[in-house]
UniProtKB/TrEMBL annotation:
EC number: 4.2.1.20
Family label: Belongs to the TrpA family.
GO cellular component, one term: cytosol
Protein name (Swiss-Prot/TrEMBL): Tryptophan synthase alpha chain
Pathway annotation: Amino-acid biosynthesis; L-tryptophan biosynthesis; L-tryptophan from chorismate: step 5/5
Keyword Nucleotide-binding set for record: no
Enzyme class name: lyase
Reaction(s) this enzyme catalyzes, per UniProt: (1S,2R)-1-C-(indol-3-yl)glycerol 3-phosphate + L-serine = D-glyceraldehyde 3-phosphate + L-tryptophan + H2O
Gene responsible for this protein: trpA
Amino acid sequence: MAIISQRFEELRKSNTCALIPFITAGDPDLETTAKALKILDKNGASFIELGVPYSDPLADGPVIQAAATRALAKGTKLDNVLQMLKTLTPELQAPIILFTYYNPILNLGVKEFLAKVAEVGVKGLVVPDLPLEEAENLIQSAQEFGIELTLLVAPTSSKDRISAIAKYSQGFIYLVSVTGVTGVRSGLQNRVKDILDDLRGVTDKAIGIGFGISSGEHAAQAKEWGADAVIVGSALVKRLANGTPEEGLKAVEELTKELKSAISKEQLSVAGK
């Protein structure tokens, strides 16, 4: 069994909801990214989603778009990101899931891209602009390198499409909580619970909820609805960008602790009985 799937099986056995934080590589610089990854790992991340900066990030909201723009302006490229990961992944407990658009994969070549990211310890992929109808080649090729490609289910997805995505998604299923791009929201849409229930009816794969979760309250709501994981991006990226790198890292640590506490309260209560 591949690493992402295996880790979710272990988490389920202990009734643990996974925390999957997201940050953008290279914002404000790769040295700070490396420090942030260690902080996320130390403070309860089950997996870490790392965004490769891209010039046309259609699925990303203004916070992550701005982070990608800053990272690109600093000269951050895929090779720089992978070089940083090569030295860092042996120190991390949380598997790295790389978030990247499809064009960089296509330009490099699918097999060459997968070989490069596998070599530095990447265990999962999220490619938001890759539709299900074109994903089969990447899914199969990724499995050859021990990498799992996770597909996204949108709030507008039909039941037939939900079933098809659930069948082919690897590692877990990424349930998008809002229609549109990533970003901080005031709350989660009730429609998300309905889609989660639909997914439970067609698959036993792990399901993570993302896009719009920005607080412990949101994370606890997603867990209460039955999510196997909560994915938090814009709120962390925003905090990391505020003030000095040291101040940003401290803010990231505080939010990570808040999120982890919010989804662990029930487990801690049971353990204390």
